Protein 1
Amino acid sequence: MSQQDPYDPGYFGPAIQEQAPSQRLLYSRAARRPGFDAGSILWPLIFLLVHLFTSLVVQLVFVFRRVLVDPFLFEQMLEGNMTNYTNNVTELIYKDFAPAAIIYSLVQVLIYGLFLRSRQKRERFYVLTRPGRAVDWLSSLFMILGALGLAVGWMFLLDYLARNFTFWSDQIDVYGQLTSAFRADNIWLLTLGIAVMVPIAEELLFRGILLAELRRIVPTWLAIVFNALFFALFHANLVQGVYVFAAGLILASAYVWTESIWIPIFMHMVYNFMGSVVPSLLSGSEELSMLVSYVEMGLLAVGIIFTVILYKKRRQPSRKPIPVEASFPY
């Protein structure tokens, strides 16, 4: 690749290249060289499994706590009446989802944070941590609201499809069971769990770790697409996967363009708050809920405008992780 190619894994940018315009970077033998290696697969795989394991363990702890204090559930488990027991377990997971999310997300944030801190000491630009400019914060807000409008439009389309096709009707039923987890008696627990802790954990995982590994081995635009695809597949639901893919594109793009992990964390918080907490608050008023939905759909056009603005204001060139020990030969 040409040394001026910003997709070259060893590209530092004009300011550094002026010091040695015709020379390549040197790496110590212990340094992790840019490009594909075992870590490109192992790190994402390990931390995706960590995410699933911690979530499952904490949710099961909450389930067993309820089973132990509920004689009826405990008796069903002992008698092996698994059909009713399994249904009840599912209901219990949904009932305690918010407090469970707070705990397992906190554990995940600590694990991912320690890993990212360690990697940042070894690889420059592994995680991008600029504070963000005013245009970054403003544009990202309307970008994610636009993504929310797209999700609302998708749900309106699904409502039509569900009335005419059995397949989509079944998918909506599955999705309805899933979203029932985002209803809680304690709105503060719901907000802290779904709109604060979960976004932080997921952004550190998907934008912090997964996107870093993708940025090391493929062009930035392709890393963004793959990252959004993994983000959608991870949610393992067709209805949710479509709008999560769109949100993933916006989150990953904003992260790369602003070089700030704080931006997608903020965007994800807004997205989850508007998509989960606000509907829970408005569940008693169908008219107000519909009004909010129409406003969100209208913000789609605004979101597109601000996406273009942020793209034009993006930081260039796109920086890829490189070893801290990298140096120019003399």
Note: The two ends are 21 Å apart (CA to CA).
Protein 2
Amino acid sequence: MKIAVAGTGYVGLSLAVLLSQHNEVTA
């Protein structure tokens, strides 16, 4: 699963970090 993170703020960033533990994250 690829997750795109753009302009999500602190909450989005935290969520991206948690998700990145199991998924590929594209910032």
Note: Residues 9-20 form the longest helix (12 residues).
